[in-house]
Predict the structure of Itaconate CoA-transferase.
Amino acid sequence: MMDLNAQYRARLTTPAMAAAMIPDGARVALSLGAGAPPLLLHALADRARAGAARDIRFYYMLCTAIAGRTIFDPQLTDRLIPMSYFHSGVERVLDKGRGGDEFLVDYIPSHFSQIPRSMVEHVGVDTLIATVSPMDDEGFFSLGTNTDYALAVARKPGARIIFEVNRHMPRVRGDCRVPLSDVAALLENDAPLVEVPPAPLSPVDIRIGEIIAGLVDDGACLQMGIGALPDAVCAGLHHHHRLGIHTELMTPGLAELVRRGVADNSAKQTHTGTTIFTFALGDRALYDFIDDNPAAQAFPVEYVNNPAVIARNDRVVSVNATTQVDFHGACNSEFVAGRQFSGTGGQVDFVRGAYMSAEGKSIIACHSTAAGGTISRITPRLSGPVTTGRNDTHLIVTEYGVADMKGKTLSQRADALIAIAHPDFREELYREAHAMRLAGNG
């Protein structure tokens, strides 16, 4: 029997040959964020430009600029077709690419926890492309920063798996390994991983972070979403104790809480002593933190984001951002100016899981205004889809305070939300609420 190194060498190929293994009509799962394989994406784009690839659909979340420079070049999207579960700046640019009069990138609504089943069962993906860590001594590759939906696709019988092996990809512990025997082809690429440094925090971010930090008890188990507001919350937690982490996204802010000893995971009921996540996106220090760290482990998103699994820990605090909250407490967290801006992601998974947790708190935060202070984010009606429904929302936070939706009538909800709206808009919002027979009746 061939030894592991010989099997590895037998699967090594060139980017062009690997791209040629993906047939016309393929349904490809593209690893999100730092897990995208740059060499293979370049080769697929070259193949499409040469007229040798057509009707290849890519299913994915949150792609980075490398996809925009390669497979999602606007000149190629009739052949290499983006099928997004979560938009980033790449899709927003593409949507403007034809004059803004049509949607160039289609969007698949889904909770993050349901995407593996969506890809495997409903979409029928047949191929996985991803960047992975170097093979270990047992013949396994770690999916590194991106276990999420990639592991479910890798375990689909008959799936075509093409990996780009990169020594900069951390070897992560947990349930996130794929055996060499399942891999069809390998490329090697030592380019540094995509890094997304934390965004600068505004005074409003810092104020909201302080308010939310005041809602977090010692011993709580944290989930943080993406963006400046969750980062501000982490910054406000540096004097807490015995915090735990069970989160879809591992961020630099959460890693810093572990380094400081603030989050030691000692009070968790599951995975005690261990930080649990399903994907990581941030800076090199974050990737180094999760590399071969037994106290930071990755698991598939259908496990991490399962509300019943989340609720096994007590005092779960979920923190996510939104773009709009209506008078009923429903949130639009993904639609801006009439277009898909981001996606549902795992917001609802954790909103529900946190509230199911004993003494849990689901927190959704936003600045009180948008567009330079000209638009109130507290609004009579949403201008986009409902991401988190009014029955699910718990605590809504702006820089002006906290509105608790639980146990409130519609009138009480409207009053509570207007009280945390920007003062410049409160009088107008009260008029709207009275016209809707809501405010002032609680």
Remarks:
- The domain at 203-435 is CATH 3.40.1080.20 (Glutaconate Coenzyme A-transferase).
- The CA atoms of residues 18 and 185 lie 7 Å apart.
